[in-house]
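cron nightly-structures :: item 1 of 1
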Amino acid sequence: MSGKARGVFGRLWGGKGSGEPAPDATETAEAGRTDDAQHTGVQDGDAPERRAAQTVKPAAPADATLPESVPDGASAEPRADGVAVQPAEAPAATAKGGWFSRLKQGLGKTSAKLSDGITGIFTRKKLEAATLEELEDVLIEADLGVGTAESIITALRKGRYEKDISADDVRSVLKTEVERVLAPVAKPLVIDPSRKPHVVLMVGVNGTGKTTTIGKLASQFRAEGKKVMLAAADTFRAAAIDQLGIWGERTGATVISGAVGGDAAGLVYDALARAREEGADVLLVDTAGRLQNKEGLMEELAKVVRVIRKLDPTAPHDVLLILDATTGQNAMSQVDVFRERAGVTGLVMTKLDGTARGGILVAISAKHALPVHAIGVGEGTDDLQPFDAGEFAQAIAGS
């Protein structure tokens, strides 16, 4: 990585989460899709044919007013009466108290679950075997993971066993141990200016917020003066193509798209070729949501990676897995499979404000040690923020 490379999630970004949709019927429909052997277009043995990829509308100027959010479920598809339905603007994020205040509020459900459990155990109680067993159950039920729960129990035993202990003492140890697990993985997403373009592939299951996250990243990159291209490679969902087009218009990023149902790998090949020709700094590639337990769909994603490498053997330079915190333990299995099949290099976790299961990020980090680049706890463009281990630990511990 070039010494000139710098973190993308810098001071220019001011907020939190992501405003992602709940999974829709697309997820069910995807199970019946054919695998890539039945698709026309790119074959592994030769270069793909150039196809009719199209640029979606002229890019807006870099200083254009940016959207607070475009919900994933929105589209500009025409209604039956022929009138185009534009997605509603999400409300601007509340800035009261700054980012940490919003993070703490977003993690309120997770923190409350832990805090209530801790308070219920350690009200006028000594630290003994029975209370430690109860606490371990609370920590595991909050999805912190067995390993993290054990480390917290071990830390509490030292110098405190059979002594009076308060709920605040326990929360302090919880914060320390969670931060210890998360600190090594809290890393900014770095764009290498020597690459033209730096290719970022976004992957994940349906409804996690890939398209919205791409829009927010494009907004940030454009604010930094970068030339950005977006590849609408979720060719199985018309709404995703439309949504990415809207983000392109509002951020000034060029969007390369094709026909609904077209070959995703071929479209990405065309987009990368175009980005290289025009000297784009960043190419953000949207992909179709896919179930991690569907072999044909995962092989299709692997094919996209292979085709990218026909043009640039070093690409994709980042493969970001977008995780929905509300899925809890299922997010762990997603990391297992996507890391193996798509070479995931980093994580973004969304919807932390909609669940009491935010502790799953701790369990995932303890097991996989993958970089966590950003987290989402809200609807606005500034609601996707660089991940800070100390802030997260403090918010989740309720301290």
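cron nightly-structures :: done
The mean pLDDT is 77.
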